[in-house]
Design brief:
Shape: elongated
Low-confidence stretches: none
Strand order of the largest sheet: 1-2-3
Largest sheet: 3 strands, antiparallel
Structural class: alpha+beta
Number of domains: 1
Mean pLDDT: 80
């Protein structure tokens, strides 16, 4: 996940992007629009710092979701390993 915005624009729009691998190619996809610089100025004095905090909250939520998925996901047809597996 990363924060993307146009640094040269007078009123940049902040987006949270995620990298997606498609074979050997990697592309980015916008997953959330945080808002325009002028909109965020109404909420906070430092819109860039606010956008970075939103990115960190998104990463933490994603990490928690992945951890929960790992705890509850079992691979089908996987047997526990025996020390005598395949040996007679």
């Amino acid at each position: 996940m990363k924060l993307n915005y146009d640094r040269k624009s007078k009123d940049p729009t902040y987006f949270i992007q995620v990298g997606i691998r498609n074979g050997k190619k990697v592309t980015t996809k916008n997953i959330e629009r945080i808002g325009k610089h002028s909109e965020l100025l109404k909420i906070t004095d430092d819109p860039l710092e606010y956008a970075k905090q939103m990115l960190m909250y998104g990463k933490e939520a994603s990490n928690r979701k992945q951890e929960i998925d790992r705890q509850h996901y079992t691979i089908p047809n996987q047997r526990p390993k025996d020390k005598h597996c395949g040996k007679i």
